[in-house]
């Protein structure tokens, strides 16, 4: 029953309230709604109604629901809502491997499993940390704004790389990647911050891609085409190499 489930802060029923609207979106929604009222005042109904619906769409895009986060140290949870578009072996990003002068080691060089998640404009765009730990690196890389569905977006598009390290030394890197329409990556955290698993770390406006670099020796528990939910869907179990076949229907 819904009453038996609490939100991620233990504050009450998960389904008892509507999702909050993130402050990043309130100004856009209010501006669109204000224009619709202005058009209505001048009896420009052909403009007033579209602007009213646009304001509702903007508020829906910036919704920020609570999530029920699995509390198991073996689990790596999805950092984003969306659809799994690619699962492949790649070299860990250079920016998360090379010595950055901070005195802390980055990811080990060599191939790791990368899980790529594509977000549509209908998905929640608040991103969350896949594990608990400290933010060791936050690297912004300027780039292009090609379609996030394309594989080359991983290397060519504007993106932000984040490295999280647990107290036991396990490290997970992930990337927020801007898309064709997305033009701004908004961070909520900074290096040195300590995060709980599933905690909000930032957002990407209007369609994008998020990629997770799993630790060495860890494979994906999700399949191509599978819908995932940020902070809830378990995408991997540390040290486990599940044998998954096929594509999600």
Structure at a glance:
The chain is an alpha+beta fold and 249 residues long.
Order of helices and strands: EHHEEEHEEEHEEEEEEEE
Extract low-pLDDT stretches: 1-16
Number of strands: 15
Biggest sheet character: 8 strands, antiparallel
Global Rg:
19 Å
Helix proportion: 10-25%
Catalytic activity: a 1,2-diacyl-sn-glycero-3-phospho-L-serine + H(+) = a 1,2-diacyl-sn-glycero-3-phosphoethanolamine + CO2
InterPro entries: PS_Dcarbxylase (IPR003817), PSD-A (IPR033175)
Main location: membrane
Subunit structure: Heterodimer of a large membrane-associated beta subunit and a small pyruvoyl-containing alpha subunit.
Give structural attributes.
249 residues, alpha+beta, Glucose Permease (Domain IIA), 8-stranded antiparallel β-sheet, 15 strands, disordered N terminus
Verbal overview:
InterPro entries: PS_Dcarbxylase (IPR003817), PSD-A (IPR033175). It is a peripheral membrane protein. Pathway: Phospholipid metabolism; phosphatidylethanolamine biosynthesis; phosphatidylethanolamine from CDP-diacylglycerol: step 2/2. This protein has 249 residues and is α+β, with helices and mostly antiparallel strands. The chain has two domains: 39 residues; 163 residues, Distorted Sandwich (Glucose Permease (Domain IIA)), CATH 2.70.70. The protein is built from four helices and 15 strands. The protein has an eight-stranded antiparallel beta sheet with strand order 11-7-8-9-13-5-4-14. Helix 1 packs antiparallel against helix 2. The longest helix has 19 residues. The protein is elongated, with a radius of gyration of 19 Å. The two termini are 27 Å apart. 35% of the residues are buried.
């Amino acid at each position: 029953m819904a009453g038996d489930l609490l939100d991620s802060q233990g504050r009450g029923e998960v389904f008892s309230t509507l999702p909050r609207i993130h402050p990043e979106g309130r100004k856009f929604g209010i501006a669109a709604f204000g224009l619709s009222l202005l058009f209505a005042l001048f009896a420009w109904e052909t403009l007033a109604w579209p602007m009213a619906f646009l304001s509702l769409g903007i508020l829906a895009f910036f919704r920020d629901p609570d999530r029920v986060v699995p509390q198991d140290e073996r689990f790596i949870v999805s950092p984003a809502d969306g659809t799994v578009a690619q699962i492949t072996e790649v070299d860990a990003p250079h920016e998360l491997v090379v010595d950055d002068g901070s005195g802390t080691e980055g990811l080990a060089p060599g191939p790791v499993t990368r899980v790529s998640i594509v977000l549509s404009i209908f998905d929640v765009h608040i991103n969350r940390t896949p594990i608990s730990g400290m933010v060791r690196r936050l690297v912004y890389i300027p780039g292009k704004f090609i379609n996030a569905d394309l594989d080359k977006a991983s290397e060519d598009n504007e993106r932000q790389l984040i490295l999280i390290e647990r107290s036991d030394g396990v490290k997970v890197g992930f990337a927020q990647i801007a898309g064709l329409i997305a033009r701004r990556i908004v961070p909520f955290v900074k290096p040195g911050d300590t995060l709980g698993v599933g905690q909000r770390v930032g957002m990407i406006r209007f369609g994008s891609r998020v990629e997770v670099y799993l630790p060495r020796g860890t494979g994906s528990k999700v399949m191509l085409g599978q819908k995932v939910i940020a902070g809830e869907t378990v995408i991997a179990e540390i040290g486990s190499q599940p044998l998954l076949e096929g594509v999600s229907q």
